[in-house]
């Protein structure tokens, strides 16, 4: 049951439009700092573009996808129209206005601070206010998801919450809590300085606040992808979910352990005690657990589909899979990238191994592979799967879709593998300029050039994706039937702990207090930890 | 079993989830706060509590010994964008009167004809800092030091406000069309030199850095050589000394001449 089609389409279209815009910037950045192009002679242009790319790709694009997909999940899996559609539109417009408000100072060169803010760098206050609006818009979505679930539960006592909605609301709660860190940073640290009320800033405390958000935000980006793994993939390839319980446990584990682990981003920061870094490192290792559970469950679900299609033997069933189905391709590509990206992540989370790649291009390669690769390719799959139901029109460009997914996969590998490599060689990240004529880094020129070529492959794939959606929007009308999510092999049994969130939210907040309470209190109470702000571009 | 009962010690899920989470936390805390401090050979801990405090990042009290004194006076000015503090209403007028004694070198309108720095429209923070450094002896100059010695805190703030208030004069820039040298726009990344323009105007400005466009080439050049030789040392954290030392004489010449030929750009703080 999809009644809020316009609302969901608006979210997806805005998401993919800003994605296309930021993708062009990304490819341009790869190109101008590679040896394929002479240096543009002004780092400001590079950092301006980088700030816009990061802000759009990190805050605006995935948030809109999660929201649009969330509304679709709520209507389809609960089988009832969305409660609070007007509020949902208000949230959408807050994000649209916030994104424009943030991008104007960036375009004017007044906020080239990169999307992670980098205090003591301070940009124009409207940049930060725009991001605050985006977050507030997404909090409306969080509230709506919670309300819709509550209304459904009231009308369906004693029935297990459908898995897609259970996962969706878990993701929304995770986002609500994880965004608090960046919100505290913006409201307590950055905005007073950006408005000129203070001229010094506690950069260390700001970074600790941001680490609260910075890691779990990745899991918020990941949620739509994981929901698609569990609830779209098995249905699209003609199978069933191997274990509904395992799926619920995975999402709950994300809720509990995705957040109190962010300090592995501050391993090199002096303001955090080594003991807390160790705790965060250990908890980061735990977050691999729900991913491993998911990989197991999805492989099992896919195997069920293959055997139902007549697959035989220990590995023979793999050939029986519907490989020409774009969803099947997307999930396979996504798993390959998740495997490599996850292996790289194990290096990043290790206190000792991190020191060899900290702040190098390895990190940039890592999060592009995980987010741009494993996660975003499933966003494509979600759009392809939902589109006929949203537009009421046929989607016949299967060939184009396959080409698009292949290009994205190949492009991401070609972009990120050399990127990791130059990181191991020691190339620092966040640099606008590299002098490849210097013998010390001349051997890295080839890898960087390859990486830039990959960037253009990704750009071609991204534009092709938008073309496929546009063509589908103009295709002849055709009823796609009712949208439905995958069913579980064994219907879910009502387990109260796996149908509610109170216990898991309590654990999430509790771990935040134990893992973040002391470092934050210590920095907040000390008076001598602030440094002069560095205003970017101009004023005040 | 209702959902409310999940949050109760009677519920098996609650007991297990809380127990496992607390167990993992205690185990990792023991590792991070007890095991690791003792395992580090070069970290001397006086006892268990000392180990825990060390791992938690509690700041230790410094030793009672007096810190080693540097062999020359260093700048004591802490540069913030609020420097100098909000000027008194009559600051500019008072500064103008005081500035009459500066006019012989820095020009009656703050534009020098004697290869002294042009002060008209210079940032107040930059002027204040230099006056303060001359006064404390962190920067030494045969002409400036005697002038600065007798200035009060208020005098220095007012002079800074006055010069910051004066309009920047474009002056005569016959060769401003020449392209910016690489050292100004790119710096020299392999030698750790940031672009001149990222702090001193042309690309960006950073708090506390003076803008350099239209400044006399001879002055800029002399200061860079003074930083390189260590003769001038009032830069914060040796920023300019580290840069100037690594610049070649040709780069110093190019940067000085290029800045001298430029009208002031728009990238400036108020």
Automatic annotation (TrEMBL), chain A:
Organism listed in the record: Alsobacter ponti
UniProt key word Manganese: no
Protein's UniProt keywords contain Cell membrane: no
Name of the protein in question: B(O/a)3-type cytochrome-c oxidase subunit 1
Domain Cytochrome oxidase subunit I profile residue range list: 21-509
Keywords: Electron transport, Membrane, Respiratory chain, Transmembrane, Transmembrane helix, Transport
TM regions (residue ranges): 12-31, 51-74, 86-106, 126-152, 173-197, 209-233, 245-263, 283-306, 327-347, 367-384, 405-425, 445-470
Pfam family, one: COX1
Automatic annotation (TrEMBL), chain B:
Pfam families membership: Cytochrome_CBB3 (PF13442)
Record's keyword terms, sorted: Electron transport, Heme, Iron, Membrane, Metal-binding, Transmembrane, Transmembrane helix, Transport
InterPro entries linked to this entry: Cyt_c-like_dom, Cyt_c-like_dom_sf, Cytochrome_c_Oxidase_Subunit
Segments passing through the bilayer: 20-39
PROSITE patterns registered for this protein in UniProt: CYTC
Highest taxon of the lineage: Bacteria
Domain Cytochrome c stretches: 90-167, 182-263
PANTHER family: CBB3-TYPE CYTOCHROME C OXIDASE SUBUNIT FIXP, CYTOCHROME C4
Protein known as: Cytochrome c4
Source species: Alsobacter ponti
């Amino acid at each position: 049951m999809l009644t809020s089609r316009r609302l969901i389409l608006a979210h997806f279209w805005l998401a993919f439009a800003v994605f296309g815009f930021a993708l062009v910037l990304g490819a341009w950045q790869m190109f101008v700092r590679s040896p394929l192009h002479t240096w543009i002679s002004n780092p400001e242009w590079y950092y301006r573009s980088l700030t816009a790319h990061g802000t759009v790709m990190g805050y605006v694009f995935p948030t809109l996808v999660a929201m649009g997909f969330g509304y679709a999940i709520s209507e389809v899996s609960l089988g009832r129209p969305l409660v609070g559609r007007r509020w949902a539109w208000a949230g959408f417009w807050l994000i649209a206005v916030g994104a424009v408000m943030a991008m104007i100072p960036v375009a004017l060169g007044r906020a080239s601070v990169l999307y992670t803010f980098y205090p003591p760098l301070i940009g124009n206050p409207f940049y930060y206010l725009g991001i605050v609006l985006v977050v507030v818009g997404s909090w409306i979505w969080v509230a709506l998801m919670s309300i819709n679930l509550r209304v459904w539960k009231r009308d369906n006592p004693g029935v297990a919450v459908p898995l897609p909605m259970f996962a969706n609301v878990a993701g929304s709660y995770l986002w609500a809590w994880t965004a608090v860190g960046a919100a505290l940073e913006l409201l307590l640290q950055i905005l007073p300085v950006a408005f000129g009320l203070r001229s010094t800033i506690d950069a260390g405390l700001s970074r600790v606040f941001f680490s609260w958000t910075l890691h779990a935000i990745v899991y918020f980006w990941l949620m739509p992808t994981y929901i698609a793994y569990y609830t779209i993939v098995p249905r699209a390839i003609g199978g069933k979910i191997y274990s509904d319980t395992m799926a619920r446990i995975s999402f709950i584990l994300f809720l509990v352990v995705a957040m109190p682990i962010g300090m592995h981003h501050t391993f090199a920061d002096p303001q955090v005690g080594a003991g807390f870094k160790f705790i965060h490192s250990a908890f980061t290792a735990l977050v691999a657990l729900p991913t491993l559970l998911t990989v197991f469950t999805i492989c099992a679900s896919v195997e069920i589909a293959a055997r139902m299609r007549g697959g035989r033997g220990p590995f023979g069933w793999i050939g029986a899979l519907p490989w020409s189905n774009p969803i099947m391709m997307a999930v396979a590509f996504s798993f390959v990238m998740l495997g490599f990206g996850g292996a790289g992540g194990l290096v990043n989370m290790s206190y000792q191994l991190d020191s060899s790649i900290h702040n190098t291009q390895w990190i940039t390669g890592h999060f592009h592979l995980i987010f741009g690769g494993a996660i975003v390719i499933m966003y494509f799959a979600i759009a392809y799967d939902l589109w006929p139901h949203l537009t009421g029109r046929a989607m016949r460009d299967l060939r184009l879709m396959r080409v698009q997914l292949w290009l994205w996969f190949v492009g991401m590998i070609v972009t990120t593998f050399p990127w990791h490599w130059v990181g191991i060689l020691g190339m620092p990240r966040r640099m606008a300029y590299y002098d490849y004529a210097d013998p010390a880094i001349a051997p890295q020129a080839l890898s960087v050039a390859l990486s830039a070529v990959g960037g253009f492959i990704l750009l071609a794939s991204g534009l092709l994706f938008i073309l496929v959606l546009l063509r589908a929007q103009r295709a002849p009308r055709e009823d796609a039937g009712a949208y439905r999510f995958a069913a579980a092999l064994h219907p879910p049994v009502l387990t109260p702990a796996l149908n509610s969130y109170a216990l898991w939210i309590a654990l999430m907040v509790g771990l935040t207090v134990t893992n973040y309470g002391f470092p934050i209190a210590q920095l907040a109470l000390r008076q001598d930890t602030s440094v002069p702000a560095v205003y970017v571009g101009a004023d005040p | 079993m209702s959902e409310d009962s999940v949050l109760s010690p009677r519920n098996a899920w609650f007991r297990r989830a809380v127990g496992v989470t607390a167990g993992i936390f205690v185990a990792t805390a023991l590792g991070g706060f007890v095991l690791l401090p003792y395992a580090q050979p070069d970290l001397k801990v006086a006892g268990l509590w000392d180990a825990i405090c060390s791992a938690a990042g509690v700041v230790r009290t410094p030793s009672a010994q007096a810190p080693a004194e540097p062999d020359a006076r260093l700048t004591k000015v802490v540069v913030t964008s609020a420097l100098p503090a909000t000027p008194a209403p009559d600051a500019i007028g008072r500064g103008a009167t005081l500035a009459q004694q500066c006019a012989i070198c820095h020009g009656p309108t703050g534009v020098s004809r004697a290869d002294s720095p042009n002060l008209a429209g210079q940032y107040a923070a930059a002027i204040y800092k230099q006056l303060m450094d001359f006064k404390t002896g962190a920067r030494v100059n045969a002409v400036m030091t005697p002038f600065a010695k007798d200035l009060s805190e208020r005098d220095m703030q007012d002079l800074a406000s006055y010069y910051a208030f004066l309009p920047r004069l474009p002056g005569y820039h016959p060769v401003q069309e020449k392209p910016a040298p690489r050292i100004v726009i790119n710096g020299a990344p392999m030698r750790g030199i940031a672009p001149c323009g990222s702090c001193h105007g042309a690309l960006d400005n950073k708090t506390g850095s003076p803008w350099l466009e239209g400044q006399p080439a001879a002055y800029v050049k002399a200061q860079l050589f003074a930083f390189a030789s260590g003769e001038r040392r009032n830069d914060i954290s040796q920023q300019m000394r580290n840069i100037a030392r690594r610049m070649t004489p040709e780069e110093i010449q190019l940067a000085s001449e290029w800045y001298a030929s430029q009208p002031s750009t728009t990238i400036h703080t108020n």
